[in-house]
Design goal:
Keywords: Membrane, Transmembrane, Transmembrane helix
CATH architecture: Up-down Bundle
InterPro entries: Na+/solute_symporter_sf (IPR038770), Put_Na-Bile_cotransptr (IPR016833)
CATH class: Mainly Alpha
Transmembrane segments: 12-32, 38-58, 70-91, 103-123, 135-158, 170-188, 209-228, 234-258, 279-305
Number of domains: 1
Structural class: mainly alpha
Order of helices and strands: HHHHHHHHHHHHHHHH
Number of helices: 16
Protein name: Na+-dependent transporter protein
Oligomer: single chain
Distance between the termini: 33 Å
Shape: globular
Number of strands: 0
Organism: Salinisphaera dokdonensis CL-ES53
CATH topology: Na+/H+ antiporter like fold
Largest sheet: none
């Protein structure tokens, strides 16, 4: 049983399996024509519902509780919106001959995305870090990402790959499809907040289900446009390698800064919130910013990076937890554990 439990930690969860299944189904049976138009309206509604529920379940009190640690939050934002884009830009001379323009645009898009919320907080909890600060940092990153991500995407990504990433229309679409539902969810929280909190499985189903719907639609459009014929196998291997190196570099920087300037609980927040990228926010934003035919290629680096970050951060969180347990065991019974 212990061996099975240990092995289960390294197997993909149902969400990952569903994403892989959506890609396979889109590759074999892509939706197209009139059906694709109807499907697009369904995914738009699903995205709006996703961000409405995010607004309804996010407690203002939890944000206020961690808002005073401004040094930590600034470091997380710098890692998310400055360090990542700088690494992405610096990689251009090395990768431009290995990746298609759409895949490199996807890499840059990955670099300008906000941090995750749910998994960042979950890993912080497993690692016994500062949970209120993680809630504040991850939430602030996502709220600012609504504005910063389209702006940085318009500045960094070539107009040949993006469909007006920095245009006013794209920003308006972001506000209507993402920010407005989120604000409405916050307003409705006083009436439905308790219900949302009492049904976490339903909220999780809507959250993950909407992403699976968008992934299927995105890859369907790309398959119709010849995604797999235009993406060399070598380029896919490069995406995996680059995603791994990118994550390792950011983890190294955030770990070094966290160890030097923060206690361990805040260091954990910086490591997890500063190194992770949001699939839940990234795919809906990409759907608004990029043309349908290029969308599958653009979100491919994000999906690869997402799987790698989950596996690596799960291992790191466990190592942090073991370190806490070792310190607790070594400390006197009446003394507090080291932070």
């Amino acid at each position: 049983m212990k061996r099975l439990a240990w092995l289960k930690r390294f197997l993909p969860d149902r969400f990952v399996v569903a994403l892989i299944g959506a890609i396979i189904l889109a590759s074999l049976l892509p939706v197209s024509g009139t059906a694709a138009m109807v499907y697009g309206h369904v995914t738009t509604a699903a995205i709006a519902l996703l961000f409405f529920l995010h607004g309804a379940k996010l407690s203002r009190e939890s944000i206020y509780a961690g808002a005073t640690n401004w040094r930590l939050h600034i470091c997380v934002l710098l890692a998310t919106f400055v360090l990542f884009p700088l690494i992405g830009l610096a990689s251009r001379p090395l990768l431009i001959g290995w990746l298609t323009p759409e895949l490199f645009a996807g890499l840059l898009f990955l670099c300008v995305l906000p941090s995750t919320v749910q998994s960042s907080i979950a890993f912080t909890s497993v690692a016994r870090g500062n949970i209120p600060a993680a809630v504040c940092s991850a939430s602030l990153s996502n709220l600012l990402g609504v504005f910063i991500t389209p702006l940085l995407a318009g500045l960094l990504i070539s107009s040949q790959s993006a469909s007006g990433g920095g245009s006013l229309n794209a920003v308006v679409d972001i506000l209507l499809h993402i920010l407005l539902p989120f604000v409405l969810g916050q307003i409705a929280r006083r009436w439905i907040g308790e219900w949302v909190a009492a049904h976490p499985k339903l909220v999780k189903f809507v959250d993950q289900g909407s992403i699976v719907l968008v992934v299927y639609g995105a890859f369907s459009a790309s398959v119709v446009e010849g995604l797999w014929q235009q993406t060399p196998p070598a380029a896919l291997l490069v995406v995996v390698l680059v995603s791994t190196v990118l994550l390792a570099l950011v983890l190294g920087v955030t770990f070094a800064i966290g160890r030097r300037y923060f206690d361990r609980a805040d260091e954990i927040v910086l490591v997890f919130c500063g190194s992770k990228k949001s699939l839940a926010s990234g795919i809906p934003i990409a759907q608004v910013l990029f043309a349908g035919g290029a969308l599958g290629s653009v979100v491919l680096p994000l999906m690869v990076f997402h799987q790698i970050q989950l596996i690596v951060c799960a291992l790191i969180a466990r190592r942090y937890a073991v370190a806490w347990e070792r310190d607790d065991a070594a400390a006197p019974a009446n003394a507090p554990s080291r932070s």
